[in-house]
Amino acid sequence: MSPTQIEAFFATLKAANPSPQSELEYTTVFELLTAVLLSAQATDVGVNKATRRLFPVANTPQAILDLGLERLEGYIKTIGLFRSKARHLMETCRILVERHGGEVPATREALEALPGVGRKTANVVLNVAFGEPTMAVDTHIFRVGNRTGLAPGKTPLAVEQQLMKRVPAAYAVDSHHWLILLGRYVCQARKPLCPQCKVSAYCDFKAKTTA
Known about the structure:
This protein has helices spanning 3-16, 29-38, 44-54, 61-67, 69-76, 82-100, 108-112, 119-128, 139-148, 156-166, 172-185. With 211 residues, the protein is mostly helical.
């Protein structure tokens, strides 16, 4: 995909969805961090169902700690790997209270020091909560980056590094939302919906579907 095609690709996505938003439901930075931490190997729909039960009861680090591990597990047990996620979330809350005054830190180093928070989770929080032009490469973005020719790479980090180089600055902050939505609803794994795709004209994928 050439620089001219990349510019047109993102201009088209922006025109179709000028202000893309995360599909995770949250009202505070801590709620966002919690939702993203819970979303590993789970759907946003599934996470939202759990947090709709959890957040009205406990939506701050101290409130989660006061809830206790067993009760926390009860609220999120519908999510895959809920036991390990509950432990990670409890430990994260303890660190936030003890080291950060109960606030979510705004640096990658501090975020990645939290249990259960890897590079992808840190990138989501830095981008969505703090407006940084980071790129959280999930399975959707990894697929779209490779399939379209936008950012080929054999690992999520390689795709992230390519995207950071190739996405025009004007689209950098919102680009990861557009790519996730494209991968989730159009450029799907088993059968991409090429006839419905607004950016298929700029895509390098040769075996485009026709129906």
